[in-house]
Write a structure and sequence with these properties.
A hairpin with a 5-residue loop joins β4 and β5. α5 runs antiparallel to α7. This protein is an alpha/beta fold and about 200 residues long. The protein has a 6-stranded mixed sheet with strand order 1-2-3-4-5-6, sandwiched between helices. The relative contact order is 0.13. About 45% of the residues lie in helices and about 15% in strands. The protein contains 8 helices and 6 strands, in the order βαβαβααβββαααα.
């Protein structure tokens, strides 16, 4: 694997929390990219403060974190996008990314806040848009950067290209019913964004 990806919905169980912690430690030791989309579902937690504490413990060990704009206050304590990006960076997250639905996404890299416009879409069903974005982000990261060290040498232009690709995946998802059924084939995205994301060798 080139990356290890973490969510939080299974982490309501203590054994899953321990497994996640061990997984992240093993990935770091192996030099793998560690990514996280908390995908908050606060209603499943008997006490959401347990999730907040868990994120505060785990996120400093994660290289890439994706939050939606409506999740940032819970995780970072602020509803301001730029302040939230800075808060994640202070935690130790190398590449914090915040999605803003049709407005695209924003990320922080090398001290610079970069706004990437959304890709035009005809909204049918927003279910799975965040998952589609994360799939596109992971696809791009693992093809351009072989490991965590490789990401550290990334340029803003490369990351902007990856986030543009992820926005395009999310845009295709919302044009169809269903989270999984809406995921596009690679060729569909490539036809909209020709020449992007040349694979790592």
């Amino acid at each position: 694997a080139r990356a290890v990806h973490l969510g939080t919905n299974s982490l309501i169980w203590k054994p899953a929390q321990k497994a996640a912690e061990l997984m992240v430690q093993a990935a770091q030791k192996a030099g793998k990219l560690v990514t996280c989309d908390p995908n908050l579902r606060l209603h499943i937690w008997p006490d959401p403060e347990d999730l907040r504490a868990l994120l505060a413990h785990l996120l400093p060990s994660v290289g890439v974190v994706k939050l939606s704009e409506d999740e940032i206050r819970f995780v970072t304590g602020t509803g301001d996008v730029e302040e939230a990006l800075l808060a994640l960076r202070k935690l130790g997250v190398a590449l914090p990314v915040i999605t803003r639905a049709a407005q695209g996404a924003v990320f922080l890299w090398q001290g610079k806040v970069v706004r990437v416009p959304g890709v035009a879409a005809k909204l049918v069903d927003s279910t799975g848009a965040g998952d589609g974005f994360m799939a596109g982000l992971l696809f791009g990261l693992t093809r351009l950067f072989p490991d965590a060290e490789g990401l550290g040498r990334a340029g803003v232009g490369e990351l902007r290209e990856i986030v543009t690709f992820a926005n395009a995946v999310a845009a295709r998802v919302v044009e169809r019913l269903g989270a999984v059924a809406g995921l596009p084939k690679l060729a569909e995205v490539e036809s909209a964004l020709p020449g992007v994301l040349q694979p790592v060798h």
